Amino acid sequence: MSARRVAGVAAMIAMMTASASAAAERLVLSLSHHRVLVTSSFTGTEVVLFGSIERDQTAALPRRGYDVVVTVTGPRESERTRRKERVLGIWVNVEAHTFVNVPNYLAALSNKPLDTITNADLQRRLQIGLANTVLPQKTAPVVADAPQEDPFRMAFLRLKKEHGLYIERDNGVTFFTPTLFRADIPLPSNVPFGLYDVDVKLFADGAMIAESTSALEVIKVGFEQFVADAARDYGLLYGLATAMLALLIGWFASVVFRRD
Amino acid sequence: MLPSRTRGFAEPAVSFVQIYLPIADLPVNVFLILAMGLAVGFISGMFGIGGGFLMTPLLIFIGVTPGVAVASVASHIAASSCSGAISYWRRKAIDPSLALMLLAGGVIGTAVGVWLFTLMRALDQLDLMIALSYLTLLSIVGALMVSESVRSIMRARVGKPVVLRRPGSHIWFHGLPFKFRFKRSMIYVSAIPVWVIGFLMGFVGAIMGIGGGFLLVPMLIYLLRVPTATVIGTSMVLTMVTMASATVMHSVTNHLVDAVLALILMVGGVIGAQFGARAGQKISGEWLRLLLGLLVLMVGLRFAFQLVLHPDDLYSLRIVEGMP
To answer: How near does any CA of chain B get to the CA of A243, in Å?
Structure first.
């Protein structure tokens, strides 16, 4: 992981310094919501990101066109990916890999397919797109990212996509004018809670020329949050309260429906 | 209403009947859960059982993870057996000393069951363990019930009397020490088989999310010779206490009890049970046992299919708690 990440960071610094001297584009971002409240009736929502590309006088020739890649990274968690195999006629989990500290939510939105924005090498170094995201797996003593064809990595990405938590859309960014764009960040009903980093990269002619970040927060509110917190932080009290509630309802029913 | 996770986001933003289950992490339709509670409550009232062996699989089939289903159903059964136990108590149909003896084993059994549950979860084999226990237990018990009830229906048709309690017959463990006299049940047996039965019920209940009334009642009748007058009430007391303690233990160890889910199930369950009890009085005992046996067998077979059929997806995910 580290080697690739160091390479990526180095490349990014190189890009940024290069772009600062060559071009003078700046990204101005605005999110429709910085806080998303999840209540009992929450069935998913979208946060809209607006962006404007500002060019100052030092900017060189007018460019042929800009490309934007938006990466939204949710709170990090460790997840186990398990694989079933037939053992004695029944299907059993036989192998499991733990993905350490990976985003629970990840959206990669762009205005056109990533391959037409920049080359594969830069995509990998900047970690744009799901295929290029570093997903460290713990196998015995070492923690390392696996190659893109690794079956566990592929299964992990596929399952996260099926759950609506990993999203890749090459039409997720829309340009209104050559310098004004919008991106819809989809948040599904099972959206994880916490802080989300919104990272926007601006490309022109295959090179990254500017980058800007923002953030949003997803908060569980109301009764659900209370219950979930209580269950996690005060297991004993929560259990006792639930058991008492059960006995109380049982007693109540026996009084209401008393027939003798 | 199945979980809408795979269906994208173009759905209407708000709907009344959707409720978000905080621990199961699943939006569900309130009326679906309520209807499930009613239906299972009806069946449990009809047969005089807790209904956990139906409720837990139903929850698994609508997308609740087996762990959450087992842990949450425990509190649902505690509620339904509590209302049953109270009405039996009023009729003095409970043997308190026998119930206490069973509980001594039951609470330890529950603790061991919750420990095994936690261990299997860490090894990624919890779902398998739940499915296998359901398959074995339900197909054996279901087959026994069906064959027993068919035989007694046949016998009744021929006209021979049904002998439930063979006087004078002796099982080896009746010679064990620590003999106790259980006054209300009018039996004089060793405490050891009583503890063992209590332990087994607590253990099975904790790992499967069942009260186990359909196992306990026959065991008490055939092994301990508990008379029919006190058997159901006493078994309900055991179920109530083991399931209430399972709720607490599952909350402390695995944080898998979904109180919102359990609450909706409880409300549906206690109402359904009242109607079921009335319906049950209209059917004869043998036919009731045959129907229950077939139901038990069907749920067992459903788990067999699930284990044997090629799964839709060989891979599955589980979030690891306590690891950043």
So the answer is: 5
**Separation of alpha carbons B251 and A234, rounded Å:** 9
Fold topology of A2-220: Immunoglobulin-like (2.60.40)
The whole-angstrom separation of Cα B7 and Cα B64 is: 17
d(CA B231, CA B85): 11
Say how many domains are in chain B.
1
Contacts of B271 in chain A (CB under 8 A): 253
Residue B140 lies in a domain: yes
Tokens of A128: 């744009």
Q: Which domain holds residue B36?
A: 16-162+171-308
Q: What is the DSSP string of A200-211?
A: EEEEETTEEEEE
Nearest to B86 among A79, A84, A254 (CB): A254
Query: Strand, helix or coil at A80?
Result: strand
Give the pLDDT of residue B163: 54
* B236-275 exposure pattern, b = at least 16 Cβ within 10 A, e = fewer: bbbbbbbbbbbbbbbbbbbbbbbbbbbbbbbbbbbbbbbe
Domain map (residue ranges) of chain A:
2-220, 221-260
Q: Is the ipTM above a cut-off of 0.90?
A: no
| Phi-psi region at B296: left, alpha or beta (left = phi > 0; alpha = psi -120 to 50) | alpha
- The pTM for the full model equals 0.72
Which residues on chain A are in Cβ contact (under 8 Å) with B248? 236, 239-240, 242-243
Q: Which residues of A touch B12 (CB under 8 A)?
A: 43
| A155 contacts chain B (CB < 8 A) | yes
Q: Is the pLDDT of residue A7 over 60?
A: no
